[in-house]
Write a structure and sequence with these properties.
With about 180 residues, the protein is of the alpha+beta class. The chain is about 55% helix and about 10% strand. The chain folds into 2 domains: about 1-110, Tetratricopeptide repeat domain (Serine Threonine Protein Phosphatase 5, Tetratricopeptide repeat, Alpha Horseshoe); about 115-180.
Length: about 180
Amino acid sequence: MNALVSVLLVLLAQVAAPPGADPVAKAKAQAVLKEGTALYERGDFAAALDRFETAYGIFPSPKLQFNIGQADRSLGRPLEAVEAFEKFLAQVPDAAPELLSEARQSVVELRGKLGQVKIECATPGAEVAMPLSARVCWKGHPGGQNGFGVEWKARDAGGNRRIKELVRRIEAQGAHARVA
C-alpha cells in the first residue's frame, strides 16, 4: 500500500491543471503531499492525514482522496476512509487500475466494519430525534420508500454494540427499527 501512496504522488505531479488552476497552488500542494507521503511511510498516519488534507485544501485534486482514505484506514477510522475512497472512485474513474482496485477493495473491507441501522416510518410527517455519541453519524433519506428513512453508521469497531443499543431503545419506545 505504501507503494500505492507513492504512485499517487507521482500521478498528482502528472495531472494537467484544469483551466484557471493556479500552478503555484499545485506546486505547494505537491510539496505538502510529499511531506505527507514521507510521514505515512514512517507510520505517522495522523500527521500524514493532516498533510494530505492540507494539500487537498491548497489544490483540491480528487486523487488526494485516495491518500486521505489510506491514512484514515490506518488510523482506524473506517467511515471516513470509506467516504474518501468513494469520492476518489467517483471523481477519478480514469485512475491507474491498481489504485482503482485498491480503493474498491478497501471500500468493501471497511464497510464490513461499519455498524448500520435503518429506520423506516410509514407515518407522514413523523420525526425521529435521539442523542448520538461522537462516534455515530446519521444520513437522512427523506422521500424514501416510506417517506422517511435514516441510515446510521458507526465510526469505529465498537459501533455495532452502540447501534444495537440504539435500536433497543427505539423499540422500547414502541417504534420499529432493525439492524441491516
